[in-house]
Structure prediction request, 423 residues.
Amino acid sequence: MSKVTLIHPTGNPNARNAAFAIAEIELLDSVVTTFFYQPESLVKSWWGKAIKTITPKLIAKLEKELGRRSWVVPKDSKIYGNPWREILRTFLVKTRLGKRLGIDDQFLIDWVVASCDRYVADHYLQNHHLQNINAIYAYEDVAADTFLAAKKQNIYCFYDLPIAFHLTSRRIQNEEAELFPELAATMMAVQEPAWKIERKNREVELADHIFVASSFTERSLLDIGVPSSKITVIPYGAPIEYFQPRPKQDQLFRVMFAGQVGTRKGVHYLLQAWQALNLPGSELLLVGVNQMPIDWLVKYRDRVRLTGSVPHSSLNAYYSSANVFVFPSLVEGFGLVLLEAMACGLPIITTPNTGGPDIIIDGIEGFIIPIRDVEALKAKIAWCYSHPQELAKMGSAARKKAEQWTWERYRQKLATVIKEKLE
Prediction:
């Protein structure tokens, strides 16, 4: 029987559900990653038991931190790790030693991801027992060397592209850098090195089939000549069990954004619209790490609340404090926060350059507006402010729609395509 190896450098909901999708059709052989944590390993180990005896609070903190990297590997499947670079990267970032040594965080991420790719190509595919491995399922930036090695062994290459292809991303962000030169330093696609771009190009060329989560990402591939038959669009799933509507605790009209507070997400346009509206009894809530220059935020500080990084477990409370969720991103692959907000009963305002058009109907569960359109942002936010009853109905519709976009649905669709391609 054909078997598949899935490769992801860290693990996230998308990768974990892809692994389970492949396992559910009994095709998953193994997962390859960097550092991974299996929940039972800490409490069962001798050192874990010792720490729990001496200081129970420390073991709780360790479990919470390590839980972000947990992999519950499906039954009859294996997991392989090459952890030391990721452990070193995490240490340098958490202690800020990397900053003091002049090492950029993005450099460390690129180093870990590229090394994971080389590990699979040079070690795993050479030394692993590959008698039953017929396919590789790999993600952006961790597939260039792996696919090249796999092709030499006639192994089918599935590619998962979680964001718009780099040419589309670069074009839009270059345009933005010209419009806002003072913000150019915050636009990562403009700064990507040539070696990284070459790897991205090679991955798409070598892939036998590509999975994307939005029509926008699909268009970015069609624009470079990738045939539509090589692409499958499957929107991600909503965590409806975890994110639930809760009663709002105050009367303040609150607009919420969640994600990296930066230019790629269109936050600078949202700030302009918010300042121009000047709505009484209102607040703009920005949940996420700030990437904007401080002077950009200072002039909005009286009407804007920036939380900084927050635990994912606290997001439900933030969503439940809001009336509407605004995500004016310029370049996205999907935007899981859209489904999180909808699961909490929030209508959304977003752009065509996200997964929004794939998961909502404009005017029913929210609104789709053009990118860079301050006037459209103002108009839709003002409508939400002045139509509370209609907005509440829209929020209920958003929750119902989120209930349709489940991870189970994602897994079923993904598994169907993988099975068809390998038969």
The chain has a mean pLDDT of 88. DSSP finds 20 helices and 13 strands in the chain. The domain at 253-404 is CATH 3.40.50.2000 (Rossmann fold). Residues 4 and 28 are 5 Å apart (CA to CA).
